[in-house]
Amino acid sequence: xxxxxxxxxxxxxxxxxxxxxxxxxxxxxxxxxxxxxxxxxxxxxxxxxxxxxxxxxxxxxxxxxxxxxxxxxxxxxxxxxxxxxxxxxxxxxxx
Length: 95
Known about the structure:
Helix content is 27%, strand content 22%. By secondary structure, it is α+β, with helices and mostly antiparallel strands. A 3-stranded antiparallel β-sheet has the order 1-2-3, with helices on one face. It has a domain at 30-95.
């Protein structure tokens, strides 16, 4: 398995690398893998003198859901809620 990613690696290449260690006879299927992407944007202060303000974008790839959040506590709560739902009801959906 590749231990690092070069700048410019496509998501398809990364997915191939990340899933290449799943044994061929594994009972794991693609639906058993849940993917989340967290993007952090640093918006400059309005006067350009203050500290940058973070904005978070949490994407649940499997369901195509994306949420914009203003602070890390909200991100962690959203992620925790979604993972708990997955663990308790893997076939259920949260919209």
